[in-house]
From TrEMBL:
Belongs to the D-isomer specific 2-hydroxyacid dehydrogenase family. This is 2-oxoglutarate reductase. GO terms for biological process: L-serine biosynthetic process. It holds the Pfam family 2-Hacid_dh_C. The lineage of its organism: Eukaryota, Fungi, Dikarya, Ascomycota, Pezizomycotina. NCBIfam families: PRK11790.1. It comes from Aspergillus rambellii.
Amino acid sequence: MASARDIKSSKDVSSLNTSQNLGFSTSPNASFQSAPSSQGGSVFATPIVPLANAKHLKPFATEDIKVLLLENVNQTGREILSKQGYQVEFLKSSLPEDQLIEKIRDVHVIGIRSKTKLTARVLKEARNLIVIGCFCIGTNQVDLQYAAEHGIAVFNSPFSNSRSVAELVIGEIIALARQFGDRSNEMHSGTWNKVSNKCWEIRGKTLGIIGYGHIGSQLSVLAEAMGMSVIFYDVVNLMALGTARQVPTLKDLLAESDFITCHVPELPETKNMIGQAQFDQMKDGSYLINASRGSVVDIPALIHAMRSGKVAGAALDVYPNEPAGNGDYFNNTLNTWGTDLRALKNLIITPHIGGSTEEAQRAIGVEVADALVRYVNEGSTLGAVNLPEVTLRSLTMDEPDHARVIYIHHNVPGVLRKVNEILGDHNVDKQMTDSRGDVAYLMADISNVDNLTIKDLYERLESLSSRIMTRVLY
């Protein structure tokens, strides 16, 4: 059986051996932001088990799928995509914007981590792009609104490195309480300084977690197992794990906690969430850890709080401005307070390594690559951060004359009536649609179709004024 392929645009639709010409159109402004809570529900909590005789749909000839992976995406992800027969180009680093624009023009799939910036200017040049994979938690490096308006799905990995970050924070809590960093630095310089003054056990101390999401809740369990009392603050009411308890305000958490750790997304509401006013509300001699986003903590205010003794120690893994690559770049040119920060005592500063473990990177590679394959081959948007989450059960090998129609469109009145007028001449086995803001996503499986029928369906859907992107899988 020949490999299944997508249909080209109407000007060359008779040729089924070449890639789809994905034209773009505009839509009214939409806003796609992270959920207000740091607690995200898992879309994979009830996974769809693939059928044993599932029919493998392909939107293009497999040799035509072009994938660009940047920033040293883990080998597990590369292997999953390569085994699909896609053309995978792999680079270890990010690219400057002009070089990225040249590279992205012909690719259908791009995989990035946190340093590649997919702005509207870059995405405008990506004429064949259908999906973006962020091999990390964050998606703020992508213009989600522009991507949605042009039918480009965005996937990330919200769960896979949660344990790695939680373990890093536990290690930092112990290291700060015992002043490991200072003693190690002194020993490296030849100084023996055996002291117990202001060194503490963490047992019996209170840990305050700001943001009780995937990382915060795991950290809660680990800290409690080590004898800590755990409180947390979140913008919504959440079920506590173990004996942890939620406090009603951030001020309450700051006043009660010996150790405070931040696990919130980067939003306007979280910018400088911990500043001078918040340091004043903290206990004297408390500790601060930030492994979330660099914009959450006002660094000059932290420097002042540590110099005054209000804060006894801190650990930072993220910063307002971070280098694009490894090297001697963490200096005052990057952040004007760099020298002052590095001069502080009992301070742990790490280069954004919270999720940088072999286990986490392998898991992220699998999670995101699998999501990309499901979207390219089946059209499933489960886990997409900027499009409605829509899926249908797989077609099977017992359904050889079936096709899956995907119609991404502006969410305006009357669209479904027009679409169903086109599909209504055929047997629609199953159909699902959903909307998110100004963008809607429709999937329908139709039976008893051949290439000429698919060509006609595609052209008629493409002609609708509501159309953002049409895909036909068979």
